[in-house]
Write a structure and sequence with these properties.
- The structure is a homodimer.
- The first copy, chain A, is an alpha+beta fold.
- Helix content of chain A is 37%, strand content 17%.
- The first copy, chain A, has a seven-stranded mixed beta sheet, sandwiched between helices. A six-stranded mixed beta sheet of chain A has the order 3-2-1-4-8-7. In chain A, strands 5-6 form a two-stranded antiparallel ribbon.
- Chains A and B meet through helix 10, strand 14, helix 16 and helix 17 of A and helix 10, strand 14, helix 16 and helix 17 of B.
């Protein structure tokens, strides 16, 4: 099996043995254009603030370079590869023609013709309008997203295109997630996966938002869902059928076989999202297994047999992680980013030195508590205009004290999310960690102590690519379900970190103070005022 | 005139021309023993935490070295010097025999025999007991100190001696401020000045705290006031008479003339405190002239013809700054100390670079507001267990943003003090700045904008020593009053910094947020909890 993870700056391919998930070889391709944020390649056309684009050519280059290199590194014959699975950042979305040609290949000097990367944030005004209108109309899908959709998602980004570049909008016969576009390139067949349709496309209870709703946003937007609705797998009259996760999207075309060096006709799995597919890599796809992918930010993914409207979650989608279960997503806007910010701007020492000093301390010895809102709050407040707070500093406070307090603040934020799920009737049975922050054992121990529960740890440092290979194994028919494939190929160490009773008790006292700060600052009265003053003052 | 300023680490002498205050020459003597914090000189006896002592020999050395050097530097004949004035840190206090011999010269291996420097903070439990008892008994003097006396003051330090070293307490025939002890050495005559007696000795309405009160603290403490009460200037039967500021304490003895090289018989002014005497140096001794001596901390000194119980002031003392007026004192525990702490621990750049970056910003552009309680809050909350808070940080926050927010926070703290005085019926007519922070014009402009009033600036960088010379001129009869001497010799630039209307308006919005933080955190619920957790956790 080959799994391919399309990230923000690069794509990674990994070759995985079907029967036990052993990772035999991998390769990385750095995108030539990286993130396009200031000007368009070739034309040099300038982009506005908060724009972030990618080039489809970079994605194809991953198929052409990283995949064959990974196969070579694994030392297996290409013919032994029976399937390929992929995952992508999301919502990364692009306009294409009816045959899948990206509009940016036709009009490369038009910014709106390019794929909008997940972190393109220039559609906030459009998201605000969508949210306001949905709340006013009481749209039934809104509570499935914690009461607010993101500016990163399909409808907000498309509305921006419509209003700022109506000609591009008109030419866009398709508005498609890169997760699905790459599958189209591999198979020659268009499909739409349940995961991105649900989490990023606001697809709920068998439908997209209604024409009436869209028309109320902008009359020209009324028919927008038609650009999304071409589910090739089992289209039903009058409805939309999406492709199930772990399903077979199609077979590798001759052209794609030429790019990848893999056998024509190999199974290609339905597209998926990096965070969601990681659950399979961690063998954590059963109800109540919350997988926290902890890196610059943290994404929480959890299947459940309970449907509930959890305040501040990013979304709940039927079959959104594995078929047959509700899939929940929540998140913390900034985690590793906070530590990096502190080290880069305020720490003479690096992460290792600060960690080494911080871990010697007893719980609470620094006298500090912080709110982890330096990048806003995704869950449970869903408010990107919040900001960070550090409380309790004295003239004796040292950088390692603040560093430790910042680590702890993100653990309190995680506990707030877990508790909110449980209070809403969605039990969290196991907390499973994946992602880059696993490399800091001190940080992991803080999380175990703060959460008062054992942490499981994924057994791979290329979780998304491994997860994509698991999905490919299901699509190829090697396993009957994601659960069984994950059980055989996924890697998880249970109780990799176990809470210490005394430290956990000490953290309870600090967490109580965190909650008081959460209540006081969470209404945004003060932090929104500071943000507004800041924005008015900026030259 | 010679003015001598006895500081924390050194003593400074300055020679000043009587008719216009011109500073003709000065010299500094660094104390050999500096601050004695860990072990006693000679014996090596270890000291406990929060101890801080000084050596009387260092003070005498200032008279022997700095005074003749200043006279030589001024190029004046010693015979031309007609008077000498001094000021001291306070409450710096020592036990002596009836002839003024410091007990530490008899038993140098006994810690409690040494002078306790103002920042000796090991008597906090004793201060707490004094405050609790005084509040329970409704002692009339307590509101004169904002409702709480400090652990730094005479009674707390003496109670510590009594209970920890009763033999030292018994041998101490006198318990005397260094401000008065140095006058005793110069004149051979014991006196007690109104200023330290009132601000540090809790002398109010003609008496010290009652025997009943002292006995209730500890029966052995009942007669303590007798160790303070030997006012040589005009002792009255059954009462205590203190020496008025600007008064003539006595004449220079032959021995002191030998030390200083000054003429025997020269006038010696009554002792005084560094902050209070600075008012004279700034020619700011009229009602409503608030002098802020801004350095590592800030001390606010203001004469007034109004008596009021201002919440959180450090003290109000009749004739405490100049005869005939009430003298108010308030303070901010840490000001320059906060900026130094930040630069030393969190700033790759120094003060100048951070100031240069910060001053380019518009008001509020950093999006931050901070509470300036990194060293506790002296006024208006009188709570040393409070700590600092920084609100509004994002991943884009830079060190210069925090640096500016910290400067602003101290300006908000100053505004809170000014407003509290005015709300209590004590008008603040003019805000006059003295001290080391005057060297930062950006910081001064922030204060002008935040306070919404022009700032006056002292015209000397050796304010205390100049102020002592002004007092000496009065004591020598060159002027009939401190007011007139200050008018001729003091130096003040009015409206050295003028508020900008637009910036002042912008700061009003941020100050409103500061006040909300002040309300939320000022009750100490959270910050005391964090402090308690910290203290329990400390290994």
């Amino acid at each position: 099996m080959v799994g391919v993870d399309f990230g923000t700056l690069s794509g990674r391919a990994v070759v995985v043995r079907v029967h036990d998930g052993a990772e035999l070889g991998s390769a990385v391709h750095e995108y030539t254009h990286r993130v396009i944020e200031t000007e368009l390649p070739g034309s040099g056309v300038r982009l506005g603030p908060d724009w972030a684009l990618q080039s489809p050519q970079d994605w194809i280059d991953v198929l052409r370079t990283a995949v064959p290199e990974a196969v070579a590194a694994a030392g297996v014959a290409p013919e032994q590869v029976i399937g390929i699975g992929t995952d992508f950042t999301a919502c990364t979305v692009l306009p294409t023609t009816a045959d899948g040609t990206p509009l940016c290949s036709e009009t490369p000097a038009e910014p709106h013709a390019w794929p909008k990367l997940w972190k393109h944030h220039a559609a906030q005004p459009h998201a605000d309008r969508i949210n306001d209108l949905a709340a006013r109309r009481g749209e039934s899908w809104l509570p499935r997203y914690g009461g607010r959709i993101s500016s990163e998602w399909e409808f907000a980004k498309a509305l921006q295109v419509l209003e700022e570049a109506p000609d591009v909008y008109a030419r866009a016969e398709r508005w498609i997630e890169a997760a699905d576009w790459i599958i189209w390139q591999l198979t020659g067949v268009e499909s739409r996966n349940i995961c991105t349709a649900g989490y990023k496309g606001v697809f709920q209870d068998g439908r997209y938002p209604s024409e009436e709703f869209l028309a109320a946003l902008d009359p020209r937007f009324a028919g927008f869902a038609a650009k999304l609705a071409t589910g090739q797998v089992g289209d039903q009259a009058g409805g939309v059928t999406l492709a199930p996760l772990g399903g077979l999207a199609g077979r590798l075309t001759a052209r794609a076989a030429g790019w990848t060096g893999l056998p024509q006709g190999a199974a290609v799995a339905v597209g998926n999202v990096d965070a969601h597919v990681t659950a399979a890599a961690a063998d954590a796809v059963r109800p109540g297994q919350m997988v926290a992918i902890m890196g610059t930010s943290t994404c929480h993914i959890m299947p459940s047999d309970q449907l509930a409207e959890v305040p501040g979650m990013c979304g709940v989608v039927q079959d959104g992680i594995v078929p047959g279960l509700w899939g929940y997503e929540a998140g913390q806007s900034a985690v590793g980013d906070i530590f990096a910010w502190f080290v880069d701007s305020f720490g003479a020492d690096g992460h290792e030195q600060l960690t080494s000093l911080a871990e010697k301390q007893a719980v609470g010895q620094h006298g500090l508590v912080a709110l982890d809102w330096f990048g806003g709050n995704r869950s449970v407040l869903v408010d990107h205009n919040l900001s960070g707070v550090i409380v309790g500093q004295t003239l004796a406070t040292r950088p390692e004290d603040v560093y430790r307090a910042l680590i702890e603040s993100t653990a309190y934020g995680a506990r707030m999310i877990v508790e909110t799920f449980e209070k809403s009737g969605v039990p969290v049975e196991e907390f499973v960690v994946a992602g880059g922050l696993l490399k800091n054992p001190f940080l992991m121990q803080v999380y175990a102590d703060v959460l008062r529960r054992p942490l499981s740890a994924i057994g791979s440092d290329q979780g998304p690519a491994l997860g994509s290979a698991v999905h490919a194994a299901v699509a190829a028919g090697a396993y009957p379900s994601i659960e069984e494939a994950a059980g055989a190929m996924g890697k998880r160490t249970e109780a990799a970190y176990v809470p210490d009773q005394a430290r956990a008790d000490a953290y309870d006292r600090l967490y109580a103070e965190y909650r008081r700060l959460h209540d006081f600052f969470g209404d945004g009265n003060m932090l929104h005022t500071l943000r507004a003053i800041r924005n008015e003052a900026h030259p």
